[in-house]
Write a structure and sequence with these properties.
It is a single chain. The chain is built from 4 helices and 8 strands; from the N terminus they run αααβββββββαβ. The protein has helices spanning 24-47, 53-56, 59-77, 185-193, and strands at residues 81-83, 93-95, 110-116, 131-139, 154-163, 168-171, 180-183, 195-198. The strands form 2 sheets. A 6-stranded mixed beta sheet has the order 1-2-3-4-5-8, with helices on both faces. Strands 6-7 form a two-stranded antiparallel sheet. A hairpin with an 8-residue loop joins strand 6 and strand 7 (180-183). It is globular and about 45 Å long.
């Protein structure tokens, strides 16, 4: 049976630092938009006896789809941010009116949005930059049987932090791979220190200072 997931308001951090006039309500609304979308789509798919979207998409494609949805929803609910109209531009969200046509290949005023299944928010990027970096950690159930008993996708963690190029380590790949960067131990500590939403049974271990 397909059920609708609901965001738990009690799991937000009221002391979190948020730039660009962001509010807890913006995050809550964007997350709920994703929940509502998956409920509507999965209900339709199961009514047609087709697999849920969560079960059809590969993990990388699912994370990319969720990141795009969150970017669009955050732009819709935010008072100061909008989507970056430059194809594959950085960051995903930019401050309205700062760049011509709200389009920039590589800007500094805005927020990069990522989603991942990795608990703790350590996600690969295509390069370390000075930026506000937001990571949504989600969880999916694609193991429970029968499939109709599976629980809906749920967000477990959200982090938002201002990071610098020195906070990233480079992940070297083979000749056919694309080089990526990931926040190093200090960078991930800084990101986790400004958590927005946390709904895990046990806290993520922090490195001892």
């Amino acid at each position: 049976m397909i059920t609708r997931q609901e965001v738990d308001p009690s799991k937000f951090n009221p002391a979190a630092s948020m730039p660009y006039n962001l509010r807890v309500l913006d995050f809550q609304s964007a997350m709920q938009d994703v929940y509502d979308f998956f409920f509507d789509v999965n209900k339709h798919l199961r009514d047609k006896k087709l697999p849920r979207l969560d079960d059809m998409l590969r993990k990388a494609n699912l994370s990319g789809t969720i990141s795009d949805m969150l970017t669009e929803s955050m732009a819709k609910h935010s008072r100061s941010l909008t989507t970056n109209n430059y194809h594959n531009g950085h960051p995903d969200l930019i401050v309205k009116g700062v760049y011509p046509n709200d389009s920039v290949k590589a800007g500094e005023q805005g927020i990069e949005i990522k989603s991942t299944l990795k608990r703790g928010g350590a996600v690969d990027t295509h390069g370390g930059r000075k930026q506000w970096f937001c990571v949504f950690v989600y969880e999916i159930d694609n193991h429970t049987e029968p499939a109709d008993s599976r629980t809906p996708l749920v967000f477990r963690e959200v982090y938002l932090g201002e990071v610098d190029p020195d906070d990233f380590r480079i992940n070297n790949r083979g000749a056919l791979g694309t080089r990526t960067s990931t926040l190093d131990r200090d960078g991930i500590d800084r990101l986790r220190g400004n958590w927005i939403y946390f709904d895990q049974p046990n806290p993520v271990r922090q490195r001892r200072k």
